[in-house]
Amino acid sequence: MSFVDLHCDTIMGLMEAGADVGLQSNQLSVDVGKLRAGGSLAQFFALFVDMEDCQNPLEHCLKMADRFYIEVDRNSDHLALALNYQDVERNSAANKISAFLTIEEGGVLKGDLANLRNFYRLGVRLITLTWNYPNELGFPNSKGEYRGQGLTQFGCEVVGEMNRLGMIVDVSHLSDQGFYDVARVSTKPFVASHSNARAVTSHSRNLTDDMIKMLAEKGGVIGINFARPFLGSADISRIEDMVHHIKHIAAVGGIDTVAIGSDFDGISPELEIKDFGEMGKLVSALEQAGFSGAQIDKVCMTNALRIIKECLSDDNVK
Ligand SMILES: [Zn+2]
Protein backbone atom coordinates (compact mmCIF):
# COMPACT_ATOMS: atom_id res chain seq x y z
CA MET A 1 0.00 0.00 0.00
CA SER A 2 1.19 3.52 -0.82
CA PHE A 3 0.32 6.58 1.23
CA VAL A 4 -0.18 10.29 0.77
CA ASP A 5 -0.04 11.96 4.22
CA LEU A 6 -1.44 15.50 4.19
CA HIS A 7 0.19 16.73 7.41
CA CYS A 8 3.25 16.24 9.58
CA ASP A 9 5.25 18.58 11.82
CA THR A 10 8.59 16.91 11.21
CA ILE A 11 10.33 20.09 10.05
CA MET A 12 9.46 21.67 13.41
CA GLY A 13 10.79 18.53 15.13
CA LEU A 14 14.05 18.80 13.20
CA MET A 15 14.41 22.52 13.99
CA GLU A 16 13.96 21.75 17.69
CA ALA A 17 16.35 18.80 17.57
CA GLY A 18 19.13 20.93 16.07
CA ALA A 19 21.40 20.85 13.06
CA ASP A 20 22.92 17.44 13.90
CA VAL A 21 19.61 15.65 13.47
CA GLY A 22 18.35 15.12 9.94
CA LEU A 23 15.52 13.67 7.94
CA GLN A 24 17.47 10.61 6.82
CA SER A 25 17.27 8.90 10.20
CA ASN A 26 16.06 10.28 13.52
CA GLN A 27 14.06 9.56 16.68
CA LEU A 28 10.96 11.31 15.31
CA SER A 29 7.97 9.56 13.70
CA VAL A 30 8.98 10.57 10.20
CA ASP A 31 12.34 10.01 8.54
CA VAL A 32 13.39 8.63 5.18
CA GLY A 33 13.74 5.06 6.44
CA LYS A 34 10.31 5.13 8.09
CA LEU A 35 8.70 6.71 5.03
CA ARG A 36 10.21 3.95 2.87
CA ALA A 37 9.20 1.21 5.31
CA GLY A 38 5.63 2.52 5.55
CA GLY A 39 5.18 2.94 1.80
CA SER A 40 5.07 6.73 1.41
CA LEU A 41 4.22 8.04 -2.06
CA ALA A 42 3.97 11.68 -0.97
CA GLN A 43 4.44 13.45 2.36
CA PHE A 44 3.20 16.97 3.09
CA PHE A 45 5.68 18.81 5.36
CA ALA A 46 4.18 21.69 7.33
CA LEU A 47 6.05 24.83 8.28
CA PHE A 48 4.30 25.44 11.60
CA VAL A 49 4.74 28.88 13.15
CA ASP A 50 3.53 29.71 16.68
CA MET A 51 2.73 33.43 16.38
CA GLU A 52 2.94 33.99 20.16
CA ASP A 53 6.28 32.26 20.44
CA CYS A 54 7.98 33.99 17.56
CA GLN A 55 9.42 37.50 17.14
CA ASN A 56 9.30 37.49 13.36
CA PRO A 57 6.89 34.80 12.07
CA LEU A 58 7.57 35.44 8.38
CA GLU A 59 11.33 35.20 8.87
CA HIS A 60 10.94 32.06 11.01
CA CYS A 61 8.75 30.48 8.34
CA LEU A 62 11.38 31.23 5.70
CA LYS A 63 14.07 29.64 7.92
CA MET A 64 11.91 26.52 8.18
CA ALA A 65 11.47 26.49 4.40
CA ASP A 66 15.27 26.62 4.08
CA ARG A 67 15.56 23.62 6.42
CA PHE A 68 12.97 21.75 4.33
CA TYR A 69 14.97 22.36 1.15
CA ILE A 70 18.26 21.39 2.84
CA GLU A 71 16.71 18.11 4.03
CA VAL A 72 15.20 17.31 0.61
CA ASP A 73 18.55 18.04 -1.04
CA ARG A 74 20.53 15.90 1.46
CA ASN A 75 18.16 13.00 0.85
CA SER A 76 17.79 13.44 -2.89
CA ASP A 77 18.32 9.72 -3.52
CA HIS A 78 15.00 9.08 -1.80
CA LEU A 79 13.06 12.36 -1.79
CA ALA A 80 12.17 15.02 -4.33
CA LEU A 81 10.16 18.22 -4.16
CA ALA A 82 6.68 17.99 -5.67
CA LEU A 83 4.70 21.01 -6.86
CA ASN A 84 1.86 19.22 -8.64
CA TYR A 85 0.49 15.84 -9.74
CA GLN A 86 2.93 15.49 -12.63
CA ASP A 87 5.82 15.79 -10.17
CA VAL A 88 4.36 12.98 -8.04
CA GLU A 89 4.18 10.74 -11.10
CA ARG A 90 7.69 11.63 -12.21
CA ASN A 91 9.16 11.20 -8.71
CA SER A 92 7.39 7.88 -8.29
CA ALA A 93 8.76 6.63 -11.63
CA ALA A 94 12.24 7.56 -10.34
CA ASN A 95 11.52 5.62 -7.11
CA LYS A 96 11.45 8.83 -5.04
CA ILE A 97 9.02 9.97 -2.39
CA SER A 98 7.35 13.30 -3.19
CA ALA A 99 7.79 16.07 -0.61
CA PHE A 100 5.17 18.82 -0.60
CA LEU A 101 5.80 22.08 1.25
CA THR A 102 2.93 23.57 3.30
CA ILE A 103 2.38 26.35 5.86
CA GLU A 104 0.37 25.95 9.06
CA GLU A 105 -0.50 29.54 10.07
CA GLY A 106 -1.77 32.11 7.57
CA GLY A 107 -0.52 34.87 9.89
CA VAL A 108 2.91 34.59 8.24
CA LEU A 109 1.39 36.32 5.20
CA LYS A 110 1.19 39.52 7.32
CA GLY A 111 -2.01 40.49 5.56
CA ASP A 112 -0.34 40.87 2.18
CA LEU A 113 -1.19 38.83 -0.94
CA ALA A 114 2.33 39.55 -2.25
CA ASN A 115 3.65 37.27 0.52
CA LEU A 116 1.18 34.57 -0.54
CA ARG A 117 2.38 34.75 -4.15
CA ASN A 118 6.01 34.67 -3.04
CA PHE A 119 5.36 31.57 -0.95
CA TYR A 120 3.78 29.98 -4.03
CA ARG A 121 6.95 30.81 -5.97
CA LEU A 122 8.94 29.25 -3.10
CA GLY A 123 7.05 26.00 -3.62
CA VAL A 124 4.35 26.17 -0.93
CA ARG A 125 1.28 24.32 -2.21
CA LEU A 126 -1.05 24.17 0.82
CA ILE A 127 -1.81 26.68 3.58
CA THR A 128 -3.67 25.98 6.82
CA LEU A 129 -5.42 29.37 7.10
CA THR A 130 -5.18 29.65 10.89
CA TRP A 131 -3.59 27.78 13.76
CA ASN A 132 -4.96 28.37 17.26
CA TYR A 133 -4.96 32.19 17.23
CA PRO A 134 -7.03 34.73 15.30
CA ASN A 135 -5.04 36.21 12.42
CA GLU A 136 -5.54 38.52 9.42
CA LEU A 137 -7.47 35.76 7.61
CA GLY A 138 -9.96 34.64 10.24
CA PHE A 139 -10.54 32.89 13.54
CA PRO A 140 -9.52 29.48 14.92
CA ASN A 141 -11.66 26.78 16.53
CA SER A 142 -9.52 26.85 19.69
CA LYS A 143 -12.14 28.85 21.66
CA GLY A 144 -15.93 28.65 21.60
CA GLU A 145 -16.23 32.43 21.29
CA TYR A 146 -14.64 32.27 17.81
CA ARG A 147 -17.03 29.60 16.48
CA GLY A 148 -19.39 32.06 14.77
CA GLN A 149 -16.65 34.36 13.48
CA GLY A 150 -15.84 33.81 9.84
CA LEU A 151 -13.20 34.77 7.31
CA THR A 152 -12.14 38.39 7.09
CA GLN A 153 -12.19 40.23 3.78
CA PHE A 154 -8.47 39.43 3.48
CA GLY A 155 -9.19 35.77 4.27
CA CYS A 156 -11.67 35.64 1.37
CA GLU A 157 -9.09 37.29 -0.90
CA VAL A 158 -6.47 34.70 0.14
CA VAL A 159 -8.83 31.83 -0.72
CA GLY A 160 -9.51 33.41 -4.13
CA GLU A 161 -5.83 33.96 -4.83
CA MET A 162 -4.96 30.42 -3.71
CA ASN A 163 -7.62 29.09 -6.11
CA ARG A 164 -6.13 31.18 -8.91
CA LEU A 165 -2.52 30.25 -8.20
CA GLY A 166 -3.27 26.55 -7.72
CA MET A 167 -2.83 25.96 -3.98
CA ILE A 168 -4.80 23.76 -1.59
CA VAL A 169 -6.88 25.64 1.01
CA ASP A 170 -6.80 23.88 4.41
CA VAL A 171 -9.53 24.49 7.01
CA SER A 172 -8.11 22.39 9.87
CA HIS A 173 -7.93 24.67 12.97
CA LEU A 174 -10.36 27.15 11.36
CA SER A 175 -13.55 28.29 13.14
CA ASP A 176 -16.87 26.72 12.14
CA GLN A 177 -18.03 29.92 10.42
CA GLY A 178 -14.63 30.15 8.72
CA PHE A 179 -15.23 26.65 7.34
CA TYR A 180 -18.57 27.71 5.88
CA ASP A 181 -17.02 30.85 4.39
CA VAL A 182 -14.31 28.80 2.67
CA ALA A 183 -17.01 26.43 1.36
CA ARG A 184 -18.88 29.44 -0.06
CA VAL A 185 -15.87 31.34 -1.47
CA SER A 186 -13.61 28.57 -2.78
CA THR A 187 -14.09 27.62 -6.42
CA LYS A 188 -11.97 24.48 -5.91
CA PRO A 189 -12.16 21.49 -3.58
CA PHE A 190 -10.56 22.21 -0.20
CA VAL A 191 -9.29 20.03 2.64
CA ALA A 192 -9.27 19.61 6.38
CA SER A 193 -5.73 18.23 6.30
CA HIS A 194 -5.66 16.88 9.86
CA SER A 195 -9.09 16.69 11.54
CA ASN A 196 -11.61 14.00 12.51
CA ALA A 197 -15.39 13.67 13.00
CA ARG A 198 -17.07 15.68 15.78
CA ALA A 199 -20.03 13.28 15.98
CA VAL A 200 -17.59 10.55 17.03
CA THR A 201 -15.36 12.68 19.28
CA SER A 202 -16.77 15.97 20.47
CA HIS A 203 -13.77 18.22 19.92
CA SER A 204 -13.83 21.61 18.20
CA ARG A 205 -10.90 20.54 15.98
CA ASN A 206 -13.17 17.91 14.43
CA LEU A 207 -15.79 18.47 11.70
CA THR A 208 -19.55 18.20 12.24
CA ASP A 209 -21.60 15.94 9.98
CA ASP A 210 -22.97 19.02 8.23
CA MET A 211 -19.41 20.16 7.47
CA ILE A 212 -18.41 16.69 6.27
CA LYS A 213 -21.35 16.69 3.84
CA MET A 214 -20.49 20.16 2.56
CA LEU A 215 -16.81 19.27 2.19
CA ALA A 216 -17.84 16.14 0.25
CA GLU A 217 -20.12 18.18 -2.04
CA LYS A 218 -17.15 20.43 -2.84
CA GLY A 219 -15.02 17.36 -3.63
CA GLY A 220 -12.71 17.84 -0.63
CA VAL A 221 -11.10 15.43 1.82
CA ILE A 222 -10.48 15.10 5.56
CA GLY A 223 -7.10 13.77 6.60
CA ILE A 224 -7.56 11.46 9.59
CA ASN A 225 -5.54 12.87 12.49
CA PHE A 226 -3.70 10.45 14.81
CA ALA A 227 -3.72 12.83 17.81
CA ARG A 228 -5.31 11.13 20.82
CA PRO A 229 -7.69 13.96 21.89
CA PHE A 230 -9.28 14.11 18.43
CA LEU A 231 -9.70 10.32 18.19
CA GLY A 232 -11.51 9.47 21.41
CA SER A 233 -11.30 9.19 25.16
CA ALA A 234 -8.67 6.44 25.45
CA ASP A 235 -5.33 7.20 27.09
CA ILE A 236 -3.45 6.57 23.87
CA SER A 237 -3.94 7.16 20.14
CA ARG A 238 -5.72 3.93 19.11
CA ILE A 239 -6.09 2.39 15.68
CA GLU A 240 -9.64 1.21 16.41
CA ASP A 241 -10.62 4.84 17.00
CA MET A 242 -9.08 5.83 13.65
CA VAL A 243 -11.18 3.13 11.99
CA HIS A 244 -14.27 4.42 13.82
CA HIS A 245 -13.72 7.95 12.45
CA ILE A 246 -12.99 6.65 8.96
CA LYS A 247 -16.21 4.60 9.01
CA HIS A 248 -18.24 7.57 10.18
CA ILE A 249 -16.82 10.06 7.67
CA ALA A 250 -17.30 7.51 4.87
CA ALA A 251 -20.92 6.96 5.97
CA VAL A 252 -21.67 10.69 6.09
CA GLY A 253 -19.60 12.09 3.21
CA GLY A 254 -18.72 8.99 1.20
CA ILE A 255 -15.47 7.05 1.00
CA ASP A 256 -14.11 9.64 -1.45
CA THR A 257 -13.94 12.14 1.44
CA VAL A 258 -11.45 10.25 3.62
CA ALA A 259 -7.67 10.70 3.51
CA ILE A 260 -4.73 10.62 5.93
CA GLY A 261 -3.29 13.60 7.86
CA SER A 262 -1.25 11.87 10.56
CA ASP A 263 0.03 15.00 12.35
CA PHE A 264 3.15 12.96 13.13
CA ASP A 265 5.76 14.85 15.14
CA GLY A 266 3.14 17.36 16.25
CA ILE A 267 1.35 14.93 18.58
CA SER A 268 2.05 13.13 21.84
CA PRO A 269 4.14 9.96 21.79
CA GLU A 270 1.52 7.50 23.10
CA LEU A 271 0.61 6.18 19.66
CA GLU A 272 -0.35 2.68 18.54
CA ILE A 273 1.08 3.65 15.17
CA LYS A 274 4.20 5.13 16.65
CA ASP A 275 5.86 6.15 13.39
CA PHE A 276 5.32 6.15 9.64
CA GLY A 277 6.96 2.74 9.29
CA GLU A 278 3.95 1.22 11.08
CA MET A 279 1.27 2.54 8.71
CA GLY A 280 0.60 -1.03 7.61
CA LYS A 281 -1.19 -1.53 10.96
CA LEU A 282 -3.91 0.86 9.81
CA VAL A 283 -4.33 -1.03 6.54
CA SER A 284 -4.69 -4.33 8.42
CA ALA A 285 -7.27 -2.79 10.76
CA LEU A 286 -9.27 -1.42 7.82
CA GLU A 287 -9.20 -4.84 6.13
CA GLN A 288 -10.43 -6.46 9.33
CA ALA A 289 -13.18 -3.85 9.57
CA GLY A 290 -14.46 -4.94 6.16
CA PHE A 291 -13.12 -2.19 3.88
CA SER A 292 -12.33 -3.39 0.36
CA GLY A 293 -8.92 -3.00 -1.23
CA ALA A 294 -10.28 -0.26 -3.50
CA GLN A 295 -11.71 1.63 -0.52
CA ILE A 296 -8.46 1.39 1.45
CA ASP A 297 -6.60 2.62 -1.62
CA LYS A 298 -8.82 5.71 -1.70
CA VAL A 299 -8.26 6.50 1.98
CA CYS A 300 -4.51 5.98 1.92
CA MET A 301 -3.67 7.58 -1.40
CA THR A 302 -6.13 8.10 -4.25
CA ASN A 303 -8.45 10.66 -2.66
CA ALA A 304 -5.51 12.90 -1.75
CA LEU A 305 -4.07 12.45 -5.25
CA ARG A 306 -7.41 13.64 -6.67
CA ILE A 307 -7.09 16.87 -4.66
CA ILE A 308 -3.49 17.32 -5.80
CA LYS A 309 -4.61 16.84 -9.41
CA GLU A 310 -7.61 19.17 -9.17
CA CYS A 311 -6.13 21.99 -7.11
CA LEU A 312 -2.46 22.27 -8.08
CA SER A 313 -1.30 23.82 -11.30
CA ASP A 314 1.39 22.57 -13.66
CA ASP A 315 2.45 26.20 -14.12
CA ASN A 316 4.95 26.90 -11.36
CA VAL A 317 5.71 30.56 -12.10
CA LYS A 318 2.87 32.98 -11.51
ZN1 LIG B 1 -2.26 21.34 13.47
TrEMBL record:
One GO molecular-function entry: metallodipeptidase activity
Stretch forming the signal peptide: none
Any one Pfam family match given in the protein's UniProt record, by short name: Peptidase_M19
GO biological process, one term: proteolysis
Cross-referenced InterPro entries: Metal_Hydrolase (IPR032466), Pept_M19 (IPR008257)
Gene3D superfamilies: Metal-dependent hydrolases (3.20.20.140)
Name this polypeptide is given: Membrane dipeptidase
